[in-house]
Amino acid sequence: MKINNPLFQADMPDPDIIRAGACFYMVSTTMYHMPGAPILRSEDLAHWEIVSYICREIADNEIYRMENGRHAYAKGQWATSLMRYRDRFYACFVCHDMKKTYLFSTDDIEKSGWDKTEIDGVFHDMSFLCWQDRLYLVYGNGQIRIVELKEDVSGIVEGTDRVLLQTPTEGMRLCCEGCRAYVKEGFICSLLTGRRIPPARLESAERSVTVLRIFPALLRGERSCMTTCGFREGGSPRGRFLMTGRGTGMR
After folding, report:
1. Which of 29, 32, 99, 227 is in the most buried spot, having the most CB atoms within 10 Å?
2. Sheet strand arrangement including 100-106
3. C-alpha to C-alpha distance for 32 and 166, rounded to whole angstroms
4. Tens digit of each residue's pLDDT (9 = 90 or more) over 77-108
5. SS3 state at 122
């Protein structure tokens, strides 16, 4: 099947995609719009429909009720990571305005209003990583860090937060972030994105055989703004390699 870009004539930023059976599921960022974190379903990666929302609200407070001059514009839910683990679906995102990270889970990805767990602190632009049957969050901006999750995915394991990789800072308008981490052929792979000065997207792919340290620059490429789709500073800000039924890697 031929797939044409863009997939959507709509604002669907920060995607993460997983496959479950014959269907692909995508999550996107909605920030302060509620219900939030839509889940979209597709059987061919070309045609998508919204089937559920992860959360009905983030918090019942002045910010989200827009009272007393307060609001959550450009805040709220950012860059959700999606995972299927032991026949349950998980999602994780941060809210900088709440200074919290939220873990959600459900048995039915097509049902709205997932179970929620709150973690104090911001694990910015995190990605789930399952390595040797242990779960981690890989996160950060510039300095990429890793922290282990509890076995029941109810929070973090204290004392496990450490630096995984220091990305370039010189000449960067936006240091590398937007991590998407996964395991392929025995390697831990991490996709990161940043922005150089002058504006040009930097796509960085790192890999390792251990969670103790990512070995940098084994595969690193820079993408300038040659394919902007008419938008300023275009490129590929975030995405994930995905295996289709034909074994084709897509991003």
Report:
1. 29
2. 78-85, 88-95, 100-106, 115-120
3. 31
4. 989 999 999 999 999 999 999 999 999 999 99
5. coil
Q: For residues 220 and 190, what is the distance between their CA atoms, to the nearest angstrom? A: 11
Give dist(CA 19, CA 84) in Å, integer. Answer: 9
Q: Is-cis flag, bond preceding 6, omega within 30?
A: yes
Question: What's the whole-model pTM score?
Answer: 0.85
Q: Where are the beta strands (DSSP E) in the chain?
A: 16-20, 23-27, 36-42, 49-55, 78-85, 88-95, 100-106, 115-120, 127-131, 134-139, 143-148, 162-166, 172-184, 187-196, 200-208, 215-222, 242-243, 249-250
> In the block, which residue shows the tokens 């370039």?
168
Return the structure tokens found at 129. Answer: 């990583």
Give pLDDT tens digits for 114-136.
999 999 999 999 999 998 889 99
Report the amino acid identity of residue 35.
Answer: P
